[in-house]
Amino acid sequence: MSGATAKLLARRQFFRSAWPTARREPYRCFSSSIQNAQQQNTSPPPGQDAPKTTHFGFETIAEALKEQKVGAVFSSVASSYDTMNDLMSLGIHRLWKDHFVRNLNPGSNPLTFPSPMAQGWNILDIAGGTGDIAFRMLDHASNINNDVHTRVTVADINPDMLAEGRKRALETPYARSPRLTFMEANAEDLTTVPDNTVDLYTVAFGIRNFTNKDAALREAFRVLKPGGVFACLEFSKVNNSLFDALYKHWSFGAIPLIGQLVAGDRDSYQYLVESIERFPSQTEFRDMIKDAGFLVPGKGWEDLTGGIAAIHKGVKPIEKRN
Ligand SMILES: C[S@@+](CC[C@H](N)C(=O)[O-])C[C@H]1O[C@@H](n2cnc3c(N)ncnc32)[C@H](O)[C@@H]1O
Question: Quick one: pLDDT at residue 79?
């Protein structure tokens, strides 16, 4: 554990003990499933191995509980998610997402894409939530590349986030178009998506919430066509220590407070900032992408805003023919 993380943990422990639970409870808007999950006994019956554990923010929990707890967070934040994104990032997430999409250039010449251009790109936006990336992809393909065939499937494990996405889609030209579909799915098990069928797999601010990131990367590799691209936009590690201290002050100080004041939900936003802290560094994540079988162009990632976020890419190799 880094010194900074230890300090943050200590500060959080102090905050929790200094502020009795009874006073915190009125601000708690977690659905009861989170509390149920916390109350479940995770110790193994005698003679059995301890359950595998994982992180939920700064907590260590049984792997089997993570999906349920993450689900409760996103069900709780779904209706305020877009407003909160603007407030928490001071609108900067929009610039990152615009850059992410511009850089991928959906619907452009298929240099690395074996499918004939007449069919457009088949894009799978995993953990697509309220559709921010999907709408941008379709706008870019149509308006910049004059391509009306590229299509996006927004896949997310959480029906409440998908419901917000469907609602937002009604305000776009893609509402009843076959170019936009929504699918409830777990990134770690995409059994309904056949092998070698996707041109571009995107995941924005989603992968840090997955229980088994390696399993999700393996699924990304499986569903992509040879030559297809994996692209991930995620919070990352800030490069400059002074900027990092300022950023942590903002994220741990302001974000849970804004969550409490605006969305009436401090704990979900506390989880979100803790999950950012827990996510692997740029090099560690690049190596995970390589381990899943992808070729990584250049150093493998691009830092955004000093490393607050980063874009990682991997290309599924085209098999050699004899
Ligand atoms: C922070 S939101 C990001 C939403 C959207 N991509 C964006 O950039 O605004 C994270 C999303 O990941 C989804 N998610 C978490 N675990 C998932 C999993 N195992 N499979 C698919 N989606 C998952 C959540 O339901 C949530 O909608």
Answer: 87
Phi first, then psi: give them for residue 156, nearest 5 degrees.
-150, 150
Domain that holds residue 234: 79-106+119-238+278-315
Pocket of ligand 1 (CB under 6 A): 70, 74, 126-130, 132-133, 156-158, 161, 186-188, 204-206, 209-210
CA 93 – CA 197 distance, rounded (Å): 29
- Asked if residue 98 belongs to a domain, the reply is yes
Q: First-to-last CA distance in the chain?
A: 49
43-61 burial code (b ≥16 CB/10 A, e <16): eeeeeeeeeeebbbbbeeb
Return the CATH number at 157.
Answer: 3.40.50.150
Residue 168 Cα to chain centre, angstroms: 19
Question: What's the total number of domains in the chain?
Answer: 1
Distance 209 CA to ligand 1 centre (A): 7
Token digits for 234? 């995620």
Rounded to the nearest 5°, which phi and psi values hold at 214?
A: -65, -40
CA of 116 to the centre of ligand 1 (A): 30
pLDDT in tens, 248-269: 999 999 999 998 998 888 998 8
Q: How far apart are CA 120 and CA 283, in angstroms?
A: 33
Asked whether residue 72 is domain-assigned, the answer is no
Predicted local distance difference test score (pLDDT) of residue 286: 98
CA distance 38 to 175: 39
Read off the pLDDT of residues 5-17 as tens digits, 9 standing for 90 and up.
444 444 444 334 3
Please state the atom number of ligand 1 nearest to the C-alpha of residue 161.
27
Whether 283 is covered by a domain: the verdict is yes
Q: Give pLDDT, residue 118.
A: 62
